[in-house]
Amino acid sequence: MKKRVISILSSAALPLLIVFGLIAWGSPFSARASAQSIELVVFAAASMTETLEEISGLYEKIAPNVKLIFNFDSSGTLKTQIQEGAECDLFISAGQRQMDQLDITAPDSVNTENLDFVVESTRIDLLENRVALAVPGGNPKDINSFSDMADALSGGRILMAMGNSDVPVGQYTQSILAYFGLDEDALAASGGISYGSNVKEVTTQVFEASVDCGVIYCTDAFSAGLDVVDYATAEMCGRVVYPAAVIKTGVNPEAARAFLDYLTADEAVAVFESVGFSRP
């Protein structure tokens, strides 16, 4: 008799178990492996700090078992850390070059060391940003365009902040200087340029008015409350596309894929777009 009761209860519970099972496994963004706690290590360009921290709170509601561990820095620094074996599940770069240098499918002219860190078929173009010319509050040097910046730099009348040559924002700025026919080395030697190791350092220099202007991303200007006086065109520096990919030094590839899927969904995209990012 007891056995029959147990059998009946088991049969009655079966539909509920199926329903709960579908809920647990059916979410397209959940860490699919299991409900056990997972630490997902995400290396991301410094310009994504505020947006990813906000998205982290949203993702926690969808995948409560996943703890996101962020490492924010310049894309060049992050690329080097990955190359040296740092644990990284997902890499989001502010430039294609840094991702190409880790991707075995990239041209040999870029991936000069034949590195193979990108998990096959996971790389996507996640976001697009804009290179902006930002000024301190009040715009004391009355710089209203990149053309104004170029004229003032060539005349030795301003101090401009830019990223180092190994970070994407610095590389975009180098292209802008070349577009206007300016010699970066000469300007730096004459005291016309101040450098930052990532875009946040450049943003801070502008915010603190220790420089007269700085070349940053529009998203960083928005987050810091800075005035943007001009945007670089594609002719000046090309498009600013952020690639993302699952990385082989990580230990949670499925959870990384799930989080990357979420970053392309409407909820996350809305956060990105609120500060100036756009879909590529």
What's the CATH architecture name of the largest domain?
3-Layer(aba) Sandwich
Number of strands: 10
Count structural domains. Answer: 2
Rg calc = 23 Å
Low-pLDDT regions: 1-27
Task: Write the CATH homologous superfamily of the largest domain.
Answer: Periplasmic binding protein-like II
| Beginning-to-end CA distance, first to last residue | 65 Å
Strand order of the largest sheet: 2-1-3-10-4
Q: Please identify the top-level CATH class of the largest domain.
A: Alpha Beta
The averaged pLDDT comes out at 90
Q: Which structural class best describes the helix and strand composition?
A: alpha/beta
Describe the sheet with the most strands.
Answer: 5 strands, mixed
CATH topology of the largest domain: D-Maltodextrin-Binding Protein, domain 2
> Could you estimate the helical fraction of the residues in percent?
40-55%
H/E topology pattern: HEHEHEHEEHEHHEHEHEHEHH
Instruction: Please work out how many helical segments DSSP would assign.
Output: 12
Shape type: globular
Strand content: 15-25%
